[in-house]
Design a protein that fits this description.
The chain is of the alpha+beta class. The protein folds into 4 domains: 227 residues, no CATH class; 81 residues, Calcium-transporting ATPase, cytoplasmic transduction domain A, CATH 2.70.150; 150 residues, 3-Layer(aba) Sandwich (Rossmann fold); 111 residues, Calcium-transporting ATPase, cytoplasmic domain N (3-Layer(aba) Sandwich), CATH 3.40.1110.10. The strands form 4 sheets. It has a 7-stranded mixed β-sheet with strand order 10-22-21-20-11-18-19, sandwiched between helices. A 6-stranded antiparallel β-sheet has the order 2-1-3-9-4-7, with no helix packed on it. The longest helix has 46 residues. The protein is elongated. The N terminus is likely disordered.
Amino acid sequence: MSDHHHKEQENGQEHCHCHHEEASTKERLLKIGLASLLLIATKLVESFTSLSEWQLLLIYLIPYLIVGWETLTEAFEGITHGQALDEHFLMSIATLGALAIGFLPGAEPQMAEAVFVMLFYQIGELFEGIAEDRSRRSIAHLTALRPETAHVEKDGALLDTDPGQVSVGDIIVVRPGERIPLDGSVVEGVSSLDTVALTGESLPRSVKPGEEVYSGCVNMSGVLRIKVEKAFGASTVMRILDLVENAADNKSKNERFITRFARIYTPVVVAAALLLAVVPVLAGGQLSVWLYRALLFLVVSCPCALVISVPLAFFGGIGGASRQGILVKGGNWMEVLAKTDTIVFDKTGTLTQGVFEVTAVHPEKITAEGLLHLAAHVERYSDHPIAVSLKNAYPDEQDGCEIDQVEEVAGQGIRARVNRQSICVGNTRMMQALGIRLPECQDEGSVVHVAIDGEYAGHIVISDRIREDAYGLVDRLHSIGIRQAVMLTGDHGQTAAAVAKALRIDEYHAELLPQDKVELLEKLVGEKKGRQTVAFVGDGINDAPVLARADVGIAMGGLGSQSAVEAADVVLMDDRPSKIVTAVGIARKTLRIARENTWFAIGVKVSVLLLAVAGLANMGMAVFADVGVTVLAILNAMRCLHK
């Protein structure tokens, strides 16, 4: 399958998935709207007519089944699969009890309350579904990064072959702009590789014959002939894909609070209601009285306030976070983020801008402007990132300079004649070849040296600037209780040390491959032993495995790679690392409000349940314990929408 066809198929699948989600939301809205109108109409019919209980039941069943059929079927499926005691079961038995309670002698009908409960429950489900659907949209599949084709040399011809069919020892050809499909060593050709997808290293890597290259890197300039040394299944890019899949399997899955609570709450409530209906009758009590109290017990115990308000609190937190440019993929990640006490950062593109620019100019026997002028003109025809940064620093190309005899020296730099002077712009090896002794440079970054007619003229430092937004971030994290800030990077130790010092990072590790990052993160997660959580912040393809393995992964989404966004649980849409402080604050507020709703609902319900057992509660109190508490809890949950 071609890349184009593959992408079209994936885009079509994604479009169908989004269309299905949109249709599901519209269907749920239609059900809620229709059931609401029918409920109002039915209540008016009940008020102005004298229909029998059975006639009212038949009328109320219409809006009840419209809005509650899905919950009833979920409860039935739970029973058939041996998982009966969940929130669907309790919601069903409580509302069915409310429908039937009016048939007891001396009891008042509560059919409208049953429909209200189902209606509120569906609204909560709608809000939660919208939040989850929005979180999943525009997320690309990591598998799209897998190379689809390898150009294999066979009998003097190039054959386009599936990388999985290429054998160790075969010679493959990689053209400029193509991704290297398999690991191997360069047989012929000189080029620069964009390795940021693999190691996170900020500067391109020059390669020549005899040097190893890894799948996943992008060939930037010359044509390379590569001898394959590893099968596709063992290649670097496939190992990264496997790491993501395995890490996702190992991630602790926090079940919804309501589901966990219902496993205890539901069987206890059902058993208590049965005992309340049977034991007093066996002891000589009146059947209608104790059956009424048992059904009242079930109505009060309906978990509507919890089932709706707790997910709604997380939805509100997700909505409030989205207003701040923070995308959270689900309420469970809010809970995990709130418990974070260690944050691990990638460097390039996360704490730094990921864009190269001239940061220092050190001329000798020439002006700084003149040094930049010569370097930019020699590099004017190159599209290497370093050349682009030099041209950006001195953009004036219309100054009458005569440039000729431009020659690229493999692995060293570029030589050219500018106004009849021989200008060499390159690295340390180029200067050593000219016999020039270089001065020490204290600046961090990649150093470009310039020589004029064989004499040293100075050097220019090109580096990846630290994000202005990152300064002071660690101090702010410490101020909100984050105990440790750690940096993991594939960059050189000297560059990593400078960034760590500038940002006051507590601990850093440099020159790491993706698997090294995963191992170090697993060590940090293991040290917590579930007491606290570890967050990882990254943006590159190489960050996807560690993003997936962290307790909570945070991706820089505005400029970050799609695979990192796919693997992450939280996405900073405007690439500002300071938003991490905001995200943690919102998560903690959301969790606090969810707990407030939980204990408030449980406290009121337990109080009314005790009164119901003693015969001191009526249906009005039961409705307050259910619907009233639900309304108050929802109003409290709406506070999560505000920062």
